[in-house]
Write a structure and sequence with these properties.
This protein is of the alpha/beta class and 350 residues long. It has 16 helices and five strands. The protein has a five-stranded parallel sheet with strand order 2-3-4-1-5. It is globular, with a radius of gyration of 22 Å.
């Protein structure tokens, strides 16, 4: 089984084009997929991992568009963007594109979406749909979003499909870190790690989101947001700058007042409105925590020659990193915010 260079750090073949179109960045992954397709051996199961908002879904969807395009060659990783199939993939209505996402009101991906309800096991769901013969062309593509939210039952239901996918089909699982998947899932997938864009690619991504900035500013914002390019663009807006200033001011002005800090954070999330999904609220809280992490990292650098001040800064940094992990585990936001603010104010373990 050939392993993608993005997963192993293998050298990029010389003489290859820098990019293949589609979403900005991820050139190494695109080259590997293009080379595999040109050799006629692009099939199987892939686990795309990277920070939220880095473009995993965009890359998987673009590959699906290339494979299902009516105009591109069978061994060319390209798409016309004009044919009915391209429009259907973009609208997520193509009959040969199978997709599953975690419902907003569920903590995990329901097993019913994977293998059908109890009364109709294996006659509905992700596993059954990918095994149907292609309706329009010669390939089928399946994308399982939110793979971080597979529980043990859901993961186990996928094992046979991932190990023995139908010929000429591609299955993409999208997650933030391969360690969040069971070893049995990882062993059945080729892992492709996607990395945040840098340089002109970072600038272009910000430009596409309406932000005009230089490469250093774009890279700094993307780093601050943990690789989430959409969140980075929001940080660079006027409102984002105000939010950063409001949070930073409360973190660097001693003493940290936990009630005031919690109220500010809560009001920022409430400003999203009642219609905002839980995922959007989690993302906003994660952005706030990223600001805190960046602030404490800078304090750590500034205090390097004052060792007596390091202990509370290190604790607050670690506590903010832990809070992001709690956000990703769907912890109750109100409790999380209040406990995090109280712990920062204390400055040491209870």
């Amino acid at each position: 089984m050939t392993t993608p260079p993005a997963a192993t750090g293998a050298a990029i073949p010389p003489g290859q084009a820098a990019d293949f179109g589609g979403p900005v960045g991820h050139g190494e992954a695109k080259r590997w997929f293009a080379n595999s397709l040109a050799k006629g051996c692009l099939s199987g199961s892939f686990l795309l991992v990277g920070p939220p908002g880095i473009g995993k879904a965009a890359l998987a969807k673009w590959i699906a568009k290339c494979l299902l395009c009516d105009e591109s060659g069978e061994r060319s990783l390209s798409c016309c963007g004009r044919c009915p199939s391209c429009f259907q993939v973009e609208a997520e209505t193509h009959p040969d594109l199978v997709q599953v996402r975690k419902p907003e009101d569920r903590a995990f991906i329901p097993v019913e979406l994977l293998i059908g309800p109890a009364e109709n096991r294996m006659r509905e769901g992700f596993n059954r749909d990918i095994r149907l013969r292609p309706f329009h062309g010669t390939r089928k593509v399946a994308i399982l979003h939110d793979a971080d939210y597979l529980n043990d039952e859901g993961s186990n239901s996928l094992l046979k499909t991932l190990e023995e996918p139908p010929p000429d089909s591609l299955i993409f699982l999208l997650g933030t870190n391969e360690q969040r998947q069971l070893p049995t899932i990882r062993s059945r997938c080729r892992i492709v790690r996607l990395h945040p864009p840098r340089g002109e690619q970072a600038v272009e991504l910000m430009r596409r989101r309406g932000i005009d900035c230089d490469a250093a500013t774009a890279e700094r914002a993307i780093e601050l947001c943990g690789g989430d390019c959409q969140a980075a663009a929001e940080v660079l807006t006027a409102d984002g700058a105000k939010l950063r200033q409001a949070i930073t001011q409360r973190l660097v002005t001693p003493p940290i007042r936990p009630v005031d800090l919690a109220q500010v954070v809560t009001s920022v999330i409430e400003d999203l409105g009642k219609a905002a999904s839980s995922a959007v609220k989690r993302d906003r809280l994660r952005d706030i925590l990223s600001i805190a992490i960046d602030t404490f990292r800078q304090q750590l650098i500034d205090s390097a020659d004052r060792p007596e001040q390091l202990a509370p800064i290190i604790y607050r940094l670690d506590r903010s990193i832990e809070a992001i992990a709690q956000v990703q585990r769907n912890a109750n936001q109100t409790t999380l915010i209040e406990c995090w603010a109280a712990d920062l104010a204390r400055g040491n373990p209870a």
